[in-house]
Amino acid sequence: MSQATSLSRRLPTQWLGVVPFFLFALLFLILPALSIVIGAFRGPDGGFTLANIVGLNTPTIRNAYWVSIYVSFWSALLGCAIGFAMAAATVLGGLPRFIRSPLLTFSGVASNFAGLPLAFAFIATVGPAGLITVWLRTEFGINLRAATGFNLFSTTGLIATYLFFQVPLMILIITPALDALRREWREAAEILGATGAQYWRMVAFPILLPSLLGTFALLFANSFGAVATAFALAGPQLNIAPILLFSQIRGDVLGSPGLGYALAFGMIVITGLANALYLWLRARTERWQK
């Protein structure tokens, strides 16, 4: 046996392809997360303390978390409902097949369209001087804000803006689950006398429920951690956890670096629980579909 062959067996080269992935994960995910966790329990003198965690129990910070949870919940719920309806209409609703490819392509692009470009797009469209706002006012005499109470620079406006990437993400995730619904299951239900509503209530929905709940958890985490869109849309006037943390990182306006770490730690805990729920429900769905 040659020396080169022996060396290749000791050092499997197929792992070299994933080295960049592990390197990026270590540098930009694992180490920063560990730094945040350690900093949340470190006092000014470098010793262990719970003062930073206790410091989260203030009206401003509690309200920021609750507003973030409110926005994330409703954007995830509406994103799931709208995205599921669109995906079901495309996969199971009998729409022409040529619609599916453009819809999935658009969803792949829109699900990653966020930050300043997305905020500017909504301001230019439905903002106080936006295209649709001005058109409704000049052509029909309708003041969008006075007639509907819609304010783009509020939590309602933020939810509507988040739906631009929440709905496409839902479509991308739920489409494979809808494809996995076997035609034999519906045929068997029809043979046994089940109506379409009964099939969905007793067969399809229970099968899809783990996927729906898991996707809801993922969309919740996706919205909870978003900061660029919210900050570009309304700035510091929206009291949500990501913007409060962003202000802390930029200027330490709260006067305590440890409190900033504690804010980030709280967000990690919430998003981590949501992602863990998503992974668990996804595993259950895959076991059932097999």
Describe the structure.
The chain is mainly α. 75% of the residues lie in helices and 0% in strands. It has 14 helices and no strands. It has helices at 3-10, 19-40, 51-54, 59-91, 100-110, 116-126, 131-140, 144-148, 155-179, 183-191, 196-224, 228-234, 241-251, 257-289. The radius of gyration is 24 Å and the shape is globular.
Quick take:
The chain is an all-alpha fold and 290 residues long. Helix content is 75%, strand content 0%. The chain starts with a helix and ends with a helix.
Keywords:
single chain; mainly alpha; 75% helix
Which consecutive residue ranges, at least 5 long each, have pLDDT under 50? none
The largest sheet is: none
The average pLDDT score comes to: 84
Described by its quaternary structure, the protein is: single chain
Please tell me what the overall shape is: globular
Which series of helices and strands comes N to C? Answer: HHHHHHHHHHHHHH
Counting DSSP H or I runs of 4 or more residues, the number of helices is 14
User: Which percent range describes the beta-strand content?
Assistant: under 5%
Q: Helix share of residues?
A: over 70%
Distance between the termini: 44 Å
- Tally the beta strands: 0
Question: Radius of gyration, Cα only, in angstroms?
Answer: 24 Å
Structural class: mainly alpha
